[in-house]
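This section describes the prediction task in plain terms. A model, or a person checking by hand, is given the sequence of a single protein chain and must write out its three-dimensional structure as a string of tokens. No templates, partner chains or ligands are provided. The sample shown here is typical of the held-out split.
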Amino acid sequence: LQVAESGGGLVQPGGSLRLSCAAAEFNLDYYSIGWFRQAPGKEREGVACLSNSGSTNYADSVKGRFTISKNNAENTWYLQMNSLKPDDAALYYCAVQYNLRCEELPVIAARGQGTQVTVSS
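The expected answer:
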């Protein structure tokens, strides 16, 4: 079972990136999906979650700037990141989660290897 991210890169502060994640063998109707990030020397942070029913949760640090969405037909989900800040720089990875509701602790069924986001002028 594979999960793979794409779309990271270098962007200037204030810029935008869209990350994509594909999970070919999962039926996303039966899982929640999430995005996490980890910067050097920092703990892993949950960035965004989309439940199987369509509700979303975001870390306070990204509310209003990031949007999580999915395309069930293509088993793909996205993280649109706008107004990026240097503090957003990290390794971002996506995950398929057994917990159906984002209010629950994430229980990761599968995750990708990560894609690097660098925010610098």
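For orientation: The chain is about 0% helix and 45% strand.
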